[in-house]
Write a structure and sequence with these properties.
CATH superfamily of the largest domain: MFS general substrate transporter like domains
Largest sheet: 2 strands, antiparallel
Low-confidence stretches: none
CATH class of the largest domain: Mainly Alpha
Structural class: mainly alpha
Order of helices and strands: HHHHHHHEEHHHHHHHHHHHHHH
Number of helices: 21
Shape: globular
Number of domains: 3
CATH topology of the largest domain: Growth Hormone, Chain: A
Helix content: over 70%
Distance between the termini: 44 Å
Mean pLDDT: 86
Oligomer: single chain
Number of strands: 2
Strand content: under 5%
C-alpha cells in the first residue's frame, strides 16, 4: 500500500482548486448582476437635475465593466509574472469587493446620498470599471492558477470547473436579484425620442432609490470570502521555480502529487525554465497565434449575444414569458457544462471543440432559417437551446483549458493576458453589434436582421471547427513541460 506521501493528497488539491474556482463564480456574478439592476439604475439617473441621462449614457454605464475587463486582462500578465498568481488573485478579490461596495454606495460620504448627479454617475462608472479590472484579472489568472497546480491527467477537468463556476455565478445572481426584488416591480422606462427615455409615473420608488444598490452590494459576500480564502492557498509550483524558490515548489508538488512524482515534476519544470520570463514570441508565432484565435473564436461565435439578450430574443419570438425560457436555458447550460467537466480527459480537447462548433452551427442556422415563422417557433427555440448547449460543453470550458495549458511556462503570464484581452475585446464587439444587426430590416417588418445575425454566427462556427481541426494541437494527458517542449521543437 502506498502512503499519502507517495500518492499526494487529492483532497488538498480539490480544496485549493475550489478556492480558485470561486474567482470564476465572481466572474459570472459580476458580469450578470447588471441584468437585475439595469432598469432601477436607469430610472435613478433619469431623475438627475444637472444633466440629461441619455440612452447612450445608460448603454455605456451598463457595459462600463467591460472596459475594466479589457484593462484587467491586459494587466494580468504583468501582475502574474511580477507579483505571482496568488497575489494577483488577492488584488482581483479586493477589486471585486471595493467595486461591490462602491457600486452600492457611489456617494462614498463625499456626495449627497440618494441625489443623482453627473459626478455621481462618474463615480459609479469608476467602481464598475474597478470591478471589471477584477473580472479581467480573474478570468486570466484563475484558469492559469488551476492549470499550474493540477496534475496533467485531470488538468482539463479541473480547469473546466472554472467555466461551470462562471455559469453558476450567473444563475446565483439571477436568483439573488429575484429575491431582492421580492414583491417590488422594476420601473417602467418609456422611450420619448431618439436616444431619450423617461420613467413612467407610478413606478416603484424603492427599486429606483434602493433596490439596485442591494443587487450590486450583494457581491460583497462572495468577494470577501474569495479574498480571505486566497490567503490560505499556495503559490503555483511553476511560478515558485521561476523565482528561485525550488524548496517551496517541491513542498507544494509533494502535497499534490506525492514525494516521488513531485521530484520528477520539479526536474521537468527546471529543465524548461531557464529564466523567469522570455519574449512573447520566443517559442514562435503560432504558439501565441493559436491561443489568441481560440479566444477570438470563443466570442466571435456569438454566444454572449445570446446570454446577454436572451429575454429580448425569446420575446421577439412571441414567447409569452421570456424569463421562463431564459431560466430553462440557464439550467440546460449548467447541465451541458458538466458534460465537458466529466468528458474532457476521456475524449480530449479537439473532439469536444469540433463537435461543439458543429452543434452551434446547426443551432445558429436553425434559428436563421426558422425565425419569424410562427408555425416553427418551437424549432427556433430548440435551435437556440442546441446552439447554447453546444457552446457549454465545448468552447465555454475547453477554451479556458487551452489558455491555461497551451503556453510555455516562461511566457504563460504575458501570453495569457494577451489572449484574454482579445477575448474581452471581441466580447465587447459582439455585445455592442448584436442589437443593431438583430434589428436590421430590408423591408418594413421583415426579419432580415435575425436571419443575417444567426447566419453569420453559424458561418463563424464552421470556420472555428476547421481552425481547430487543422491547426490546434491536442494537449490531453500532456504535462505543461511536455507542451513547452512541443513548442520548442516547432520554433
Amino acid at each position: 500500500m502506498q502512503s499519502k506521501s507517495d500518492t499526494g493528497s487529492r483532497g488538498y488539491l480539490v480544496s485549493i482548486v475550489m478556492v480558485a474556482v470561486l474567482g470564476g463564480l465572481l466572474f459570472g456574478y459580476d458580469t450578470a448582476v447588471i441584468s437585475g439592476a439595469d432598469k432601477g439604475l436607469q430610472a435613478f439617473f433619469l431623475g438627475a437635475s444637472d444633466f440629461r441621462y441619455t440612452d447612450f449614457m445608460h448603454g455605456f454605464t451598463s457595459s462600463s465593466a467591460l472596459i475594466g475587463c479589457i484593462i484587467g486582462s491586459a494587466l494580468s500578465g504583468l501582475f502574474a509574472t511580477r507579483f505571482g498568481r496568488k497575489r494577483s488573485l488577492v488584488f482581483a478579490g479586493i477589486c471585486f469587493f471595493l467595486s461591490a461596495l462602491g457600486s452600492m454606495f457611489p456617494e462614498s460620504m463625499l456626495l449627497p446620498e440618494g441625489k443623482p448627479s453627473f459626478t455621481l454617475l462618474v463615480a459609479f462608472n469608476f467602481y464598475r470599471i474597478l470591478g471589471g479590472i477584477g473580472v479581467g484579472m480573474a478570468s486570466a489568472i484563475c484558469p492559469m492558477y488551476i492549470g499550474e497546480v493540477a496534475p496533467s491527467e485531470i488538468r482539463g477537468m479541473l480547469v473546466s470547473w472554472n467555466q461551470f463556476a462562471i455559469i453558476f455565478g450567473q444563475l446565483v445572481v439571477y436568483f439573488v436579484n429575484f429575491l431582492i426584488l421580492g414583491s417590488h416591480t422594476n420601473p417602467v422606462i418609456m422611450q420619448i425620442g431618439q436616444g431619450f427615455s423617461e420613467v413612467v409615473a407610478g413606478s416603484d420608488p424603492w427599486i429606483i432609490a434602493t433596490g439596485w444598490r442591494y443587487m450590486f452590494g450583494s457581491e460583497m459576500v462572495p468577494a470577501g470570502l474569495f479574498t480571505i480564502l486566497i490567503f490560505f492557498v499556495p503559490e503555483t509550483p511553476r511560478y515558485l521555480v521561476m523565482v528561485g524558490r525550488d524548496d517551496v515548489a517541491l513542498r507544494v508538488l509533494s502535497r499534490i502529487n506525492g514525494n516521488t512524482k513531485a521530484a520528477s515534476i520539479l526536474h521537468d519544470i527546471k529543465n524548461t525554465v531557464q529564466a523567469r520570463t522570455e519574449r512573447l514570441f520566443s517559442y514562435g508565432f503560432m504558439c501565441v497565434f493559436i491561443g489568441i484565435m481560440l479566444s477570438v473564436f470563443q466570442q466571435a461565435i456569438g454566444i454572449n449575444a445570446v446570454l446577454y439578450y436572451a429575454p429580448r430574443i425569446f420575446g421577439d419570438m412571441g414567447m409569452e414569458n421570456p424569463m421562463v425560457q431564459t431560466v430553462v436555458m440557464g439550467v440546460v447550460n449548467i447541465l451541458f457544462t458538466l458534460i465537458a467537466v466529466f468528458t474532457v480527459e476521456r475524449f480530449g480537447r479537439k473532439p469536444l471543440l469540433i463537435t461543439g462548433s458543429v452543434g452551434m452551427a446547426i443551432g445558429a442556422f436553425g434559428v436563421a432559417l426558422t425565425f419569424g415563422n410562427a408555425s416553427l417557433s418551437v424549432v427556433t427555440m430548440l435551435s437556440i437551446m442546441v446552439y447554447s448547449a453546444s457552446f457549454m460543453f465545448s468552447w465555454g470550458p475547453i477554451c479556458w483549458v487551452y489558455i491555461a495549458e497551451i503556453f510555455p511556462n516562461t511566457i504563460r503570464g504575458a501570453a495569457v493576458s494577451v489572449a484574454v484581452a482579445f477575448q474581452w475585446i471581441f466580447n465587447f464587439i459582439v455585445s455592442s453589434t448584436f442589437v443593431p444587426m438583430f434589428n436590421m430590416h430590408l423591408t418594413q417588418g421583415d426579419h432580415f436582421g435575425h436571419w443575417f445575425t444567426y447566419g453569420l454566427y453559424g458561418i463563424i462556427c464552421v470556420v472555428a471547427a476547421l481552425f481547430v481541426w487543422r491547426i490546434v494541437p491536442e494537449t490531453k494527458g500532456k504535462t505543461l513541460e511536455e507542451i513547452s517542449m512541443y513548442w520548442k521543437r516547432k520554433s
